[in-house]
Batch of 2 targets.
Target 1
Amino acid sequence: MSGQTEYDFVVVGAGSAGCAVAAGLAEAGLGTIAVIEAGQSDAHPFVKIPFGLIWLMGSKRDWGFKSAPQKALGGRQINIPRGKMVGGSGSINSMVWFRGRADDFNAWNLPGWHWSDVEPAFEDVEARLTPDTFDAPHPSVRKLGSLFGANTPSNPTPERESGGVFRFNMRRNRRWSAADAFLRPALDKGITLVTGQEVVRLGFEGKTAKSVIFASGGQIKARRGVILSAGAIGSPAILLRSGVGPAKDLAAQNIDVVLDAPKVGANLHDHPGAGLHFTGHASGYGIAWRQAADWALAPLQYLLRRKGRLSSPTVEGGLFFNATGNDSTPNVQTHFIPFFMNWKGPRYAPGEGFFADVCVCRPKSRGALRLTDDGLSIDFNLLSDPADLDVMVAGIRRLRSLLKEAGIAGVEGYPGADCDSDAALREYIQSHCGTAYHPVGTLGMGEGDAPVTPRLAVRGLENLWVADASVMPSITSANTNAPAMMIGYRAGQFIAKDVA
């Protein structure tokens, strides 16, 4: 830990948004900045090698959260991987890069957040990230680009029905995260990076945030302000433990109330998803004798040329489509993983194949994050709105049809073609539904009594801002890493103007 105990600004979390906001503050010359990360460095080969993410999830570089029992899923708990290292979840994700749809932002209907406001920020972020199409996808992925007429394999977008190879924030088939694009270039501009220190709560003087307090008992003071960028789980949890949240809930946990903010922790949601497993020769990668040489050569190919199996981000492409086909507006995203994923138990099992899921682009179900006697309750309340389940049932039927139309080899191994009635599909989805690992919304910005203002300041408090996916009033229609980075980038701009 740094010996310095006071900075102008303290940024909590070195994830996709935190790295961007810290760089923005530094580049604006706003003084000294401490970036506090609970995990360790991202200097690990599995972080930089795209395929390495399969070994990172569930490791010590993953917070390893689990949800509360989900009522509509038969009481199942689901895994919630979140990155615990520099780069945050952007260091363990599949690096898929989508801005979302223009009307995602217009629907927020907030000053400063319409598409015309955020598009320039996306362009600035992408000038540093330079996301590009994966250059060596499995042939099965390329076939997705033949669907939907004029669309090309390199141009899938949630704006219209489309498919093909996705874009990724990689450079020369190496992960290129916000830590690479924003944080490291700004370290010589007044930023101090502190790793291995978990912030559990904030210190206040009246209604003004003055410090961050670590699980270890130490603290760092902030002369001009604190920015929470700990994510849709971490940021509200810190506020709740600090006495900012629903007063009745805080009192039940014997936490002194700094500010009664009923909506802190509410509005938790994610893209619900369930998928199909396919098997068959040439349908995808897997553990098979005919692929043994390719796997044996994979480390050398990557080391020498950044090519081969290890260069794959796993989710190599996918689709956007309307579940019923009665509208040209997509309400489903498919992540296509051209690797055999065993559904019978052991993680590593012989077989060749692929996995393709159905994720609801704009789910209606909402849950909440709360402090309880047992710790943190993370309840997505998945499929509590029947409309989400209806979209998934129709989406699986149309996905099957689209995969057949694309001419991709393989047969459905699980749940199998016999699982086709409404009742059977609903049961399958409820017993296998998870999320796309895109939690958002727990500090949704807005007007009135929303926890966070459209300028990303915490309403009712001073010298405190939030910059991460927790501020999204509603989720964007695709992967959320790019929007989170955009939010962090804009936070740097807002704060620089608002503290001047």
Note: The first helix runs from residue 16 to 27.
Target 2
Amino acid sequence: MAVTKVSPTKGNLIATKKSLTLAKLGYELMDRKRNVLIREMMMLVDKVKTLRDEITDVYAQAYLALQQANISLGVVTEIANAITVENGVHIVFRSVMGVEIPNVTLDDSPITFQYGFEESNSKLDEATIKFIQVKKMTILLSEIDSSIYRLARAIQKTQKRANALRNIVLPQLQGDVKYISEALEEKEREEFTRLKVIKNKKQEISA
């Protein structure tokens, strides 16, 4: 690591030591932040694995019930088109070490069938219930997926900053401190030698 050509003065030594202390603190904070974010993300990764398996199973059940409803009632496209669009989804954010994590919620409302009983049967009811269940699980999955993505990006950025501090900034400042300290020590030795020579010459003249 090349040492920055700084002027070897006591003022610069003090300033560089302060910068080194701050850089060490910055690295510790970056490392701590990274560990917290990784821990948060790993908890979500465990959740998303289970949720994906569950949602795949429920989707299969929902489409099977819908297929059976189509067979018994004919294609239920008109009924499906009459279903109102969901507008009860809300998103708020919470902060984890400065990273905005979404919290997606759905208004809690009782299950209602938006079609007449004369034009439906139990299979259509079952499909409706399953798709409502899927909707809730999909909202939760979107929250977790988005959170994992945001955390992964934040971890990557934090890791880069921590690496820069550890591999570039800290060695550079440590090198600067060493360079300035050695230069000042050399000056002190030269000054001591010079004063000693002057003293010896004065003693010779006095003798």
Note: The two ends are 53 Å apart (CA to CA).
